[in-house]
Amino acid sequence: MDDQAFAEWLATRAGAALTGLRASQGFADPAALKNAGDKASHDLMVAELARWRPEDAVLSEEHADSRQAWSSGEQPPRLTADRVWIIDPLDGTREFSEEGRTDWAVHVALWERTAGPDGGLTAGAVGMPARTGADGAPLVLGTGLPTPTGVDGPIRIAVSRTRPPAFVSTLIEQIGGQAVPMGSAGVKVCAVVTGEVDAYVHAGGQYEWDSAAPVAVALGAGMHASRIDGSPLRYNRTDPLLPDLLVCRPELAEQLLAAIARCQ
């Protein structure tokens, strides 16, 4: 498989494992289900990457040192690697542990050093195992999707259902928009790609694995993706903290960036 097909396959495999775990373990102990989901998906994904892409480095949310900001001293292999898989084995653990919720996801992205001056994302997939596509199979979005049709009515902005940015209510009031709360960063970005919403705005804390795969999918569909100040999103950095982002339809980027700036 090429890298894009592999990313979609891996997201599908991990998603199937998570769906099975949810069915077998049930929802009586949400904390235990969250922990089991994180571990099961991480273990599966890391094992498959070691089997099929053994020369590549991996950055996973579930690595013990994943949140460490590295200095110029001892560093993980990913910082000198040419290819790094950035994965979030379970994005939206809260939603995963709540019966009936479908807004949780699996993220798989590939960063390559040769894809630009700072490297870049070259493959990405977001699996949404609790949702189905037109063929009835669990939904997995990859790159190269068509751009949805234009905005009709108020600008719909996906926001965190539990941690919306403090300024977002002001932003929505300024532009006459509509907030659409949902879980999982991947689900929110994919909602932009599919036309369910027009934008996703986040600030206040994320890491590279929260946005890498969704951003790869969004860019592949012709969407705008940046920090909320308009600067580029960069991956495989010494500090994996990447606390904010804007993903939106390209024709809305200038308007939204200007409105966000006024709200800061």
What is the gist of this entry?
The chain is α/β, with parallel strands linked by helices.
Walk me through this protein's architecture.
By secondary structure, the protein is of the alpha/beta class. The chain folds into 2 domains: 3-141, Fructose-1,6-Bisphosphatase, Chain A, domain 1, CATH 3.30.540; 156-263, D-Maltodextrin-Binding Protein, domain 2 (3-Layer(aba) Sandwich), CATH 3.40.190. Helices cover 35% and strands 22% of the residues. It is built from 7 helices and 10 strands. It has helices at residues 3-25, 30-52, 93-96, 168-175, 185-194, 208-220, 253-263; strands at 57-60, 83-91, 105-112, 120-132, 138-141, 156-160, 178-182, 199-202, 224-226, 245-248. The strands form 2 sheets. A 5-stranded mixed β-sheet has the order 1-2-3-4-5, sandwiched between helices. It has a 5-stranded mixed β-sheet with strand order 7-6-8-10-9, with helices on both faces. Strand 6 (156-160), helix 4 and strand 7 (178-182) form a beta-alpha-beta unit. Helix 1 (3-25) runs antiparallel to helix 2, helix 4 crosses helix 7 and helix 5 packs parallel to helix 6 (208-220). The protein is globular. The mean pLDDT is 94.
